[in-house]
Every structure is written in C-alpha cells, then in structure tokens.
Amino acid sequence: MRRYPQGIVNARIPMAVAAGLLVAACAGESQRLACPQVSTVFGLDRLELTYPGAAEPIPTFLDVSQVICERDGDEIVVANAVAIRLAGPTPPGGAEVRYSIFVESAGGMSPNSNQVALIAPGSRGAVEYFDHRLPATVVDGGQPARILYALVPDAAEYERLRSEVPRP
C-alpha cells in the first residue's frame, strides 16, 4: 500500500461520493481478473467522535471514492481516495481522525494499517489517496479480495456502540 499526501477539503466544496463503487474488470489474455471491492465498514463510517478543544462530540464521516483498478504483472493495483469530513466546526487546534484499513481475502480478514488524517483548523475535512497492490485473483473458482476502511471509535463512542449491540 502506498499512501499519498493528504489534501485539505474546503468546507464549501461538496464531497462527491460515488453512489456505487466503480468495480472495473481487468482483462488478462485467457483469464478474467476481478478488481477488489473497496468500501467502508457499515456502522464504522459515521461516528460521533470527541476531539480536544471541542465542547461536544462531532459527527465524523468516512467515504471511499475514485476507485481505479489496473493490472501490473501478477498484481492488481487498486487506487482510491478516502474523504474524511466533520459535520461540525473543526476544533481550534484541528482534528486527528483515526481510521483503519483491512484487507479481506479467501484467507480471512487482516488489518492492513492504521492511519491518522489531520484536519486543519478552519477546514471541515481531508482527502487521502492510496495505492494498494494485491495478488491478482482469478474469478473462476476464487473470490476477489475486499479493501475495507473504518473509523476508529474513541472511548465514549465505543461504549455507546457497545451498549447498542445485544449480547447473546
């Protein structure tokens, strides 16, 4: 995975997020290759997080867009953008938004990395760009991998989420 420097998103610029994810098919000579699905983890894409200097938790959103898939030898390169937005004013010192990236394949789910997006004072969000390099997955007889993004809940949000989940 390669991470590109983040860009600051102006609060007045609408966040254009694809309603459906672009799933491109990468073609080989005699086999079709699948582009991995790239999305957010439902329930961990919108959280109310507490930031230093903020009077109350701020709704925070994580969206994935601009998914492009290309074949490079025996690998598939998946490029995508991640937009992190705050629904309230940014605290005076800015905000550090923590999120994680997971890769799911036939072997199971594994954490890929933990990230921190820095949102500058006066801005309402940030956009970060990633290139993921994954082994090519043949559609016939195999399942393509998935790349998942999730906000990391702070202690207060974790307790709120935990209280909503019924225990067996």
- What is the makeup of the main sheet? 5 strands, antiparallel
* Envelope shape: globular
- The radius of gyration over CA amounts to 17 Å
- For the largest beta sheet, what order do the strands appear in spatially? 1-10-7-6-5
Instruction: Quickly count the domains.
Output: 1
Order of helices and strands: EEEEEEEEEEEH
Strand content: over 45%
Total strand segments? 11
Mean residue pLDDT: 77
Q: How many helices?
A: 1
The helix fraction, in percent, is under 10%
Contiguous uncertain segments of 5+ residues: 5-30
Distance between the termini: 37 Å
Structural account:
The protein has 168 residues and is mainly beta. It has one domain. The chain is built from 1 helix and 11 strands, in the order βββββββββββα. The protein has one helix at residues 155-164; strands at 2-9, 25-27, 32-34, 37-40, 46-49, 58-72, 75-86, 95-105, 108-119, 125-135, 146-151. Strands 1-10-7-6-5 form a 5-stranded antiparallel β-sheet, with no helix packed on it. The protein has a 4-stranded mixed β-sheet with strand order 4-11-8-9, with no helix packed on it. Strands 2-3 form a two-stranded antiparallel ribbon. The longest helix is centred in the C-terminal third of the chain and has 10 residues, at 155-164. The protein is globular, with a radius of gyration of 17 Å. The chain starts with a strand and ends with a helix. The model is unreliable at 5-30 (pLDDT under 50).
Secondary structure topology:
Layout: E1 2-9, E2 25-27, E3 32-34, E4 37-40, E5 46-49, E6 58-72, E7 75-86, E8 95-105, E9 108-119, E10 125-135, E11 146-151, H1 155-164
Parallel strand pairs: 4-11
Antiparallel strand pairs: 1-10, 2-3, 5-6, 6-7, 7-10, 8-9, 8-11
